[in-house]
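Please, why this fold?
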Amino acid sequence: DVAKDLGLELSALQDRGARIVDKGRKNYFSLHERTGHLVTAERIDREQLCGRLQTCLINLEILVEISIRLFKVEIEITDLNDNAPKFQEDKLQLRVSETAAVGTRFPLEEAQDADVGLNALQRYELSGDEHFSLAVQKAPEGEKRPALVLAKALDREEAAFHELVLSAVDGGDPARTGTARIRVVVLD
């Protein structure tokens, strides 16, 4: 309610020709003259507008023409959990020798999530078999880097390959998930 926030009577807002001043950029908002509310004029995509920035602000000005008063307005655009974590490749294949030592790490591709904060990627999960576990290392930039860890010795004669599923989960409510299938081919 811009009229209330600016201390203007609704009739004064209508009579004095209040409007949003265009600075040559896209107008995401308009001023509803009968209610005095600031309303969205079109869909706002926070990720497109601000990328990975934690705080996303739109600054605009409202001009009340008769009194020639200019009001500055700052609007914070909050993030919705509208993007799921996504792997560049949804099917991965690793070739591992059956002589690989238990504890050997195999780095995996990181998932990407365009959302920020709690709605961004929060954790990885691995399902498959007892031969592999998951280790996640946190990078200085805050990224989470997954790696497969050989937890049990491989034997090609016992199993020529292992099928695993790596899931990337964000912190939204409800959470969104992206998956990648991993096929580990055991080399003789």
Observations:
- The mean pLDDT is 90.
- Residues 132 and 150 are 5 Å apart (CA to CA).
